[in-house]
């Protein structure tokens, strides 16, 4: 959707969960010297000024990264690498910028690693290219549909990759395209680690998506959900988010068990806040 701009939502509770997990995955991949690829189907602008008109309009970061930032001296150990990555963009101690998924991935990239980024919105593509202007050998930005573009990159030469699929879900078709894209990707590159972000909404498409992803038949998978509040009585609005991971590292469930209760306490808005964690790892 060309109308979607992530700047309005940068640093919210969904970003916190998604980006913490992304750092975990890339850190795990970096345990070996072998290079990895990071592929992002909906990359956004790369980095966001939290005092911009878009970010300040709803100030969603106040209910997300800002809460962790204020208490960053007391974070549980698994969250420290994520906050350290955010600190690289805020070296003077004030939370002024929030890095998107590509920028955070770049903080973990070594010389041999590569980023492949897709984005459709022309303004965000321009900002994304500016963000990575110095990393021309490592980063390729494409103004194209990430759903369609992914298939042309699989399998990557390294045979090691983390793929983030996080559309805005502003149209129902996104739910179908996520399933179809992942089904095709698993045929082309079965050993890749795929991360699908999805919103917690009352609408049936959102509720059914994790089940449909599980039915794709991956031997190893993980599904984690963070609800920051209960669903609204009228059924409208996002009350949390989830991540479905195919081929997760075996250490990830234990790390999440340590982090998720803390995130519920830090980001929860009412007594219906909570988390769910399911996994089957071969």
From TrEMBL:
Catalytic-site annotation from UniProt: 166
Catalytic reactions on record: adenosine(2030) in 23S rRNA + S-adenosyl-L-methionine = N(6)-methyladenosine(2030) in 23S rRNA + S-adenosyl-L-homocysteine + H(+)
Pfam hit, one: RsmJ
InterPro entries per UniProt: RlmJ (IPR007473), SAM-dependent_MTases_sf (IPR029063)
Enzyme Commission (EC) number: 2.1.1.266
Swiss-Prot/TrEMBL site (Interaction with substrate rRNA) positions: 4
GO molecular function ontology, one term from the record: RNA binding
Keywords: Methyltransferase, RNA-binding, rRNA processing, S-adenosyl-L-methionine, Transferase
Binding sites annotated in the UniProt record for S-adenosyl-L-methionine: 19, 42, 101, 119, 145-146, 166
SUPFAM superfamilies: S-adenosyl-L-methionine-dependent methyltransferases
Catalytic class of the enzyme: transferase
Gene Ontology BP term (one): rRNA base methylation
Source superkingdom: Bacteria
An annotated GO cellular component: cytosol
Role: Specifically methylates the adenine in position 2030 of 23S rRNA.
Quaternary structure note: Monomer.
Protein family according to the UniProt entry: Belongs to the RlmJ family.
Protein name: Ribosomal RNA large subunit methyltransferase J
Organism: Azoarcus indigens
Organism placement in taxonomy: Bacteria, Pseudomonadati, Pseudomonadota, Betaproteobacteria, Rhodocyclales
